[in-house]
Amino acid sequence: MRDDEPGVQGPDSGDAPRPAGPPRRQPLPEAAPEPAAETPPEEGPAPAELTGRQRLVKGLWPPRVTRAQLTVAVLLFVLGLGLAIQVRSTNDTGALRGARQDDLVRILDELDDRTERLEDEKQRLEDQRTELENSSDQAEEARRQTVEKERQLGILAGNVAATGPGITVTVQDAAGTVRADMLLDAVQELRAAGAEAIQVNDVRVVAGTYLSDGSGGVNVDGNKITRPYRFKVIGNPQDLEPALNIPGGVVQTLEKEQATVVVTREEKIVVDALRPAEQPDYARSSNE
Questions:
Q1: pLDDT at 190
Q2: The overall pTM is greater than 0.70
Q3: Helix axes of 237-245 and 180-192: crossing angle, nearest 10 degrees
Q4: Beta strands in 39-122 (DSSP E)
Q5: Are 217 and 227 in contact (CB under 8 A)?
Q6: What single-letter DSSP state applies at residue 80?
Q7: CB contact at 8 A, 167 and 263
């Protein structure tokens, strides 16, 4: 410590000595200043540094796609589409596998109800088809019966030719003694025995047929027939022949008049004499 420092007295000082205080710190020597770094010459403003996102965008855009990359992309798209379709097609079964028991029971009940409705609809359609078929069959049967009835009426009316088993009756009248009433008796006996079609010579005998005597012979419905008189009759021969040969019947009556009667059974008789169809003047069908 130096003597000239204030607060410190030397040994020759008259005052009482003071206790020494803490020693003072000595100031450190100042460091020499470092030489300034040389500043490089200015070359204009430096470009701003790019961030990571900007570098990514700059690398991706504009896109540089080659043909190989495009082909791979298309193949991957097609593959993904196929997988999506397959997954979608299996979703239903997958959904059923994961369904609860109550849901499965409800689905089965709905399927049973739908099946029952479809069965009912099927039965209804089958019934309609059967009804239509029956109606068609009934209409066809009615048409067939109508045609058959028309044919039968045509035979009875003499408008249609007829064929079938029967008999032929030939009456030889050399003396000319056979009268119209005798031939009319023969027609009535044949009708009573079941004759269905009768023809005398070339005249068809019908329900309204009349016979009359004429010069040199007999007239049938105004048409003169000459001897010999030939009957062609369709019916059951086993009934027709006995009806003419009964005692006191047609054959015996004609033979008494010196006529000769020959009755022959035939397997096939053709009655082809026809009468013109007559249109009524006043009568009309009640259905019109």
A1: 94
A2: no
A3: 140
A4: none
A5: yes
A6: H
A7: yes
Instruction: Tell me how far apart the alpha carbons of residues 233 and 133 are, in angstroms, rounded to a whole number.
Output: 42
SS3 call for 9: coil
Q: Which residues of the chain have pLDDT under 70?
A: 1-50, 52, 56-65, 67, 86-99, 286-288
* Tokens 């019966």, located at residue: 145
235/267 Cα distance (integer angstroms) = 10
Give the contacts of 192 (CB within 8 A, at least 6 positions apart). Answer: 243
- List, for residues 6-16, the tens digit of each pLDDT value: 444 444 444 44
Q: How far apart are CA 279 and CA 284, in angstroms?
A: 10
Q: Please give the backbone phi and psi of residue 81, each rounded to the nearest 5 degrees, phi first.
A: -65, -45
**Amino acid of residue 207:** A
SS3 category, 157: helix
Burial label for 278, CB within 10 Å (0-12, 13-18, 19+), is exposed
Query: Rounded CA gap, 180 and 188, in Å?
Result: 12
